[in-house]
Amino acid sequence: DTFGATVVAFGDLTSDGVDDYAVTSSQFGGTTSLAMVFYSGADGSQIGPNWGLPGTTPNLANAGDVDGDGVDDWTYRGWNASGDWVEIRSGRTNATLYAIPPTPGHPAVPIWVFGIAINGFGDVDGDGFNEVGIGSQSYYFPAPGMYTMMTARPIGVTSFGAGCAFGAAEPPRIVASGKAAIGQDLTVRVSKVEPGRTAALLVGLSNAQDGAVTLPHDFTYAGWPGCAQLVSTEFIYWTETTSYTPGKGTAGLTVSIPLLPLLAGAVFYTQWAVAHAPGTTPPFGLSKGLSITIQ
To answer: Mind giving me the DSSP string for 195-243?
Structure first.
């Protein structure tokens, strides 16, 4: 047993003002023997159940909030007789968000150890999506090691424009997770907002024109400099932000893309608008926009 082989800080999971942490444990020789346990940074008590993960190596890192649900996610390297892999998993449900096989240039074991070092770096390139670094090592000297930076941005999704906070600490954050492909599910979330607020996901077919209005539509004339409507509004999805972690609001919409080949290559655009507290002027904040091309 290797309990304590990796200890990772995960921010304030319990909203008590003290950062919490996770500890890994593994028993070598099994295929589902890696476990992760969360502990309170305030008193050391266990938070929730032991979460089992496939594989036998305890490499673990905080990936930040990859899926935009307000809870930090994690990335880990697993290994068994079939080889190496790296996964990003939800900090809220333990569901697999992304499974990353050895990338080109990273041969499979036993010559290489894929993911011997992993780390979450937050949003390195400013597109609103987090990145994860993956290092690999060769068993054979003098072969060099390799390092790859991987993005959590789904294929076919790009961000554009800028969000505006309207006096809040930072703008609403828009992210997409899943797959923008026919026959697959894609989730678009907003986070970094207050819970209990009305939110609208704008979904349109253009980022250049909304009826007679040219996009982006700048709201400087209304006294809201730096804020703009970025997408057309053929569809508007209304919801309310909720909170899994107290004080951290989030909302989302999951779309099941029909299994219709004619949809491949279709493009649509999305942007979140989230209301501020009643009586606040200006009354809402806007996220960046996302351009989504169905694969």
So the answer is: TT-EEEEEEES-SSEETTEESSEE-GGGT-TT-EE-S--SEEEEEE-EE
Most confident of 28-37, 83-92, 134-143, 182-191: 182-191
pTM: 0.81
Residue 16: closest CA among 36, 46, 43, 50: 43
Structure token digits, residue 51? 């979460």
Task: Please say if the pLDDT value at position 111 is more than 90.
Answer: no
Q: In which band, very low, low, confident or very high, does the pLDDT at 52 lie, cut at 50, 70 and 90?
A: low
Name the residue among 110, 13, 137, 5 with its Cα closest to residue 60.
5
Helix, strand, coil proportions of the chain in percent (round to 5)?
0, 50, 50
Distance CA 146, CA 201 (A): 40
Distance CA 28, CA 13 (A): 29
Q: 171 vs 128, 190, 273, 286, 288, CA distance in Å? A: 11, 10, 10, 7, 8
Cross-strand pairs, 141: none
Q: How far apart are CA 18 and CA 40, in angstroms?
A: 8
**What single-letter amino acid sits at 145?**
G
Residue in the structure block whose two tokens are 């028993």? 27
Residues paired with residue 122 on neighbouring β-strands, in sequence order: 131
For the chain, the residue count is: 295
Tell me, what amino acid is at 129?
A: F
Distance CA 156, CA 141 (A): 39
List Cβ neighbours of 119 (8 Å cut-off, separation of 6 or more): 61, 132, 133
